[in-house]
Amino acid sequence: MFDFSIITNWIHGLLTSFLPLGLATFVECVVIGGCLLLLYTIIAIVMIFMERKVCAAFQCRLGPVRVGPWGTLQVFGDVFKMLTKEIITIRHADKFLYNLAPYIVILASLLAFACLPFNRGMEVLDFNVGVFFMMAASSIGVVGILLAGWSSNNKYSLIGAMRSGAQMISYELSIGLSILTIVVLTDTMQFSEIVERQADGWFIFKGHLPALIAFVIYLIAGNAEVNRGPFDLPEAESELTAGYHTEYSGMHFGLFYVAEFVNLFIISGVAATIFLGGWMPLHIPGWEGFNTVMDYIPGFVWFFGKAFFVVLLLMWIKWTFPRLRIDQILTLEWKYLVPIGLVNLLLMVIVVVFNLHF
Fold first, then answer.
1. Coil, strand or helix: which one is 264?
2. Which InterPro entries does the entry mention (predicted)?
3. Mean pLDDT throughout 336-348?
4. Do the beta carbons of residue 101 and residue 145 sit within 8 Å?
C-alpha cells in the first residue's frame, strides 16, 4: 500500500530548502486548500450526475442523455446557468444574515470534508480527536440553515428551517452513538488509526453484531442528517415550496444545493472509513495471496469505491420510500434509534471488556 506521506514530506523538504519555515507552511496550506476546493467541486458534479442517473433508473427513465456523451455535460451547463443567474435580495430580509447563511453551510461542509482520509498519507486534518472535530464542524451547518430561514422574512422558509434544525440536531445524537460504538472498539478517535486497525478485517465484519447495528443506525441517521428522502420534510415542495432556501436565487441557492450533495458524500465517506475500512484493502486472515493482490489496488480507489457504494445505498433509500411526516421522523429518532443506539453501545462495551471481538 503506497504511502502518500513520502511525497508530501519530499515537497515539504523542497519548500523549506529555499523558503522560511513559516512561509513554506503558508504555501502548503494554500495549495492544500486549493486542492480541497477542486476535489469538493468535482465530487459535487459527480454526485449531481449520479443522482440524476440513479433516480432515472429507479423510475424507468434514461436521465440526461442529450448534452454531451451520455449526458455528462448537462451538469456543467447547469453550473454555468447558475453562475449567470441574478442573485435577488428580498426587500425586508436581514441582508447580512441572508447573505452569510449559504457560506456558513459551505464552510461547515468543507471542514468536515477535510477530515476524510482519502489514502494513507493523504489526511488533511488528522489528529487524535479527529472524530470529535468532524462532528463539531459538521454541526455548524445547522446554524446556516436556521439563519437562512429566519433572515428570509418568509414563513415557509422559517418553518422549513425549524424543521431542519429539529431534525438535524436530533439525528446527530444517533450518528454520535453509532460512531462512539466504533470508538469504543478501537480506543481511538483518530481517523487514520481507525483505518489502520482494520488491516486484518473491516469492522463491519469483525465488530460482531454491535458494529452491524451501528452501521444500520448510522445509515438511517446520516440520511436524515443531510435532509435526504424520505427525511426531506425541510424541503417538502408540496407544503413549503423549497423550505429554508425558498427565497434564494442564483449561486446563493447553488451553494445550498452543492453542500447538500457533498454532505451526502461526507456521510458516506465517514461510513466507509469507520465501518468498511476506508482506504484499507480487503484482507482475509490466512489468504496471503489474495491479500497481496488486493494491496496492488491503490488506497484512494478503495476509499472512493466504498464511499460511492454507500452513496448508492442512500440514493436507493431516497427513491424507494415515501416521505415521512415530521412527527414520524422525530418519533423514529427519539423512541427507537436513540434507545437502540444506547443499548448497542453498552453491548459493544461488553464485547470489548470481555474480549469477544475478532
1. helix
2. NADH_UbQ_OxRdtase_su1/FPO (IPR001694), NADH_UbQ_OxRdtase_su1_CS (IPR018086)
3. 94
4. yes
Q: Which amino acid is at 95?
A: K
Our CA dihedral for 119, 121, 122, 126, rounded to 10 degrees, sits at 110
pLDDT of residue 125: 82
Confidence bin at 357 (pLDDT 50/70/90) = low
Residue 232 forms part of a structural domain: yes
Contact of 66 with 52, CB cutoff 8 Å: no
Which of 147, 136, 65 lies closest to 98, judged by CA?
147
Cα atoms found within 13 Å of the Cα of residue 293, Cβ hemisphere only: 4
Which has the closest alpha carbon to 177: 358, 356, 336?
336
**Is the CB of residue 178 less than 8 Å from the CB of residue 348?**
no
The predicted pLDDT at position 244 comes to 83
Instruction: Estimate the share of the chain in helix, then strand, then coil, as percent rounded to the nearest 5.
Output: 70, 0, 30
> Where in the sequence is the domain holding 103, given as residue range(s)?
2-352
Residue 31, C-beta contacts closer than 8 angstroms, at least 6 positions apart = none
Q: What's the burial of 96, exposed, middle or buried (CB within 10 Å: 0-12/13-18/19+)?
A: exposed
Cα–Cα dist 308/298, whole Å:
16
Q: How far apart are CA 61 and CA 53, in angstroms?
A: 9
Inside any domain, residue 357: no
Please determine, for residue 79, whether its predicted confidence score (pLDDT) is greater than 90. Answer: no
Q: Region of 327 please: left (phi>0), alpha (psi -120 to 50) or beta.
A: alpha
Q: Report the C-alpha gap between 201 and 270 in whole angstroms.
A: 17
For the chain, how many helices (H) and strands (E)? 16, 0
Flag whether 265 is in a domain: yes
pLDDT band at 22 (very low <50, low <70, confident <90, very high): confident
The whole model's pTM is what?
Answer: 0.92
DSSP state letter for 73: T
Task: Give how many domains the chain has, as a whole number.
Answer: 1
Domain assignment present for residue 358? The answer is no
For the chain, the residue count is 358
Mean pLDDT on 159-174: 88
